[in-house]
Structures are given as C-alpha cells and as structure tokens.
Design a protein that fits this description.
Elements: H1 3-34, H2 37-41, H3 51-54, H4 58-78, H5 84-116, H6 121-142, H7 149-180, H8 183-196, H9 208-211
Helix pairs in contact: 4-5, 4-7, 4-8, 5-6, 5-8, 6-7
Length: about 210
C-alpha cells in the first residue's frame, strides 16, 4: 500500500473523532451559558442569609408600627359617615396594633432605653402615662357601637393622643436612645420585641400601663 493511500485512510478515520470532540466542547459551552446564575455562582459551604433573618433594630421596628397605625387612622378619616362596618373593622385593627405595640414598648423597649440612656427617664414615664390613657380609650372603643354618635368622637380623640405620643417619641427621645445603644444591641432588642408580639394581650386593659 502506498504512503499516500495510508495517510488518506488515517485522516478519514480520525475525522469522526474530531467532530465528536468538537460537538462535546460546543455542548459544554452552551450548558455553561444557559445554566442558572445561582447554580454557577454558588460554592460549597457558602450560603446567603435570607433577608428575613437579618432583622430590624428596635427603633426602626417601632417606627414601622407607627406607620401602620397612621395608615389605619387615615383610612378611618377617609371613610364616610355611614361606613359603620368599615370603621368598626378599622378600629378593631387599631386596637390590636396599639395594644401589641404598647406591650413590647412597656416590657422591653422602655426599660432598656431608660437603662441605656438615663436622661430619657422622664420621657419614658410620660410615655407610660400616655399609654394608660390610650389603653382605656381603646377599651371604650372596643365596647362602643359604631352607630353611636360618640364612636367617631372617641376615635378622633384617640388619634390626637397617639399622634402626639408618636411625635414626642420619634423626635424628642428615640434619637437619644439610638446614640446610647450600639447597632448590634438595637438589633438584638428588635429581635426580642418582634418575638414578644405573639405574647401580647388582646385586651388593652391587661397592659401594665392600664393598671398603673
């Protein structure tokens, strides 16, 4: 057999193998490009922490509660005079939100704030007294029929009291607490407060401030 014929046969024999290898490389590149980004970037032993696990600091948590309540107040103010069922539902939500909020403040935030920033002591005492008034107003609203002409009046006075309370906390002494406590301590306190919400009473008269 001539050398030329032998070389030709070798080329023909190796061509399928080369094509197969090329196809394999092409497939590998395509798979890498189309693979989900999370699968490409994730490395063993490294897991990203879910956002919910990061938590919120105590003051941010309380401010968020304030926003929720203010939103309910605005809904009540926009409801028509004859929207009895709607207003009853809103007031029930307000009672629940404020009772829970007052509970975590009185049991966790106020004592910690007073210890960390002693200069806030008078503010804390005033806040507890304001809670006392609010707790009894909430209890009265819980037992007042929305058709009663005093229902809207009671809610209006409650909103005025709570808005005043919130303004004093957020503008006058929350900043002092933030200065006195580290970010880590505030986050740890925030986690405890969030967990304590499930233990809050449904009856506002069971709050510590209501009995004072």
């Amino acid at each position: 057999m001539s050398q030329t014929a032998s070389t030709t046969r070798q080329r023909k024999a190796t061509t399928p193998a080369k094509k197969a290898a090329k196809a394999t490389k092409t497939l590998a590149k395509t798979t890498a490009k189309t693979a989900p980004k999370s699968a490409v970037k994730t490395s063993p032993g490294k897991k990203s922490m879910p956002a919910a696990a990061v938590g919120q600091d105590a003051i941010a948590l309380l401010k968020d509660d304030h926003k929720v309540v203010e939103k309910l107040f605005k809904e009540f103010e926009k409801a028509g005079d004859a929207a009895y069922a709607k207003k009853r539902k809103i007031v029930d939500q307000v009672i629940s939100e404020l009772t829970t909020h007052a509970y975590i403040e009185e049991t966790l935030f106020y004592p910690t704030a007073r210890k960390a920033a002693p200069e806030t002591g008078e503010h804390v005492l005033e806040s507890v007294e304001e809670h006392h008034v609010v707790a009894w107003m909430l209890s009265e609203l819980a037992g007042t029929d929305p058709h009663d002409e005093r229902f809207d009046a009671k809610m209006t006075v409650l909103m005025e009291n709570v808005r005043h309370h919130v303004k004093e906390e957020e503008q006058e002494w929350f900043p002092e607490v933030r200065k006195a406590m580290s970010r880590g301590d505030l986050k740890e306190l925030g986690a405890k407060m969030e967990a304590a919400k499930s233990k809050a009473p449904s009856d506002p008269l069971k709050l510590r401030s209501a009995k004072a």
